[in-house]
Amino acid sequence: MQRIYDYLKKCKTYYLATIDGDQPRVRPFGTIEMIDGKLCFQTGKSKPVSAQIHANPKIEICAFDGGTWLRVSAIAVEDPRIESQEKMLEAYPELKNMYRAGDGNTEIFKLVSGSAVISSFSDSPVFVEF
Hints:
The protein is an alpha+beta fold and about 130 residues long. It has three helices and eight strands, in the order αββββαββαββ. Strands 1, 2, 3, 4, 5, 6, 7 and 8 form an eight-stranded antiparallel β-sheet that branches.
């Protein structure tokens, strides 16, 4: 889990895929934090990505660091705790002009029942289950 977290932090931007009915949707994301040993990301409840995850919590993440790439498949589960929102906003203070812990819009999702693979063209893939 730490290796996935470190990889995503290093990349800064990763791509989150959801399902919208029968259509995949992919968008850049930048928030990732470890909360209670789980990988978590933040979004706004008013955004389509939130509705998509609530309708179908299966997500995928893809990131590239210039030499290797990471793919994560997981179930995204809402973490409604104010403490989790506060931790995320402390890690990403630039979001505080748009979000506040407990504002009814800030939403944290934790990743569960997941797997990841780090791949490259030259080395054997590294697999992680969580």
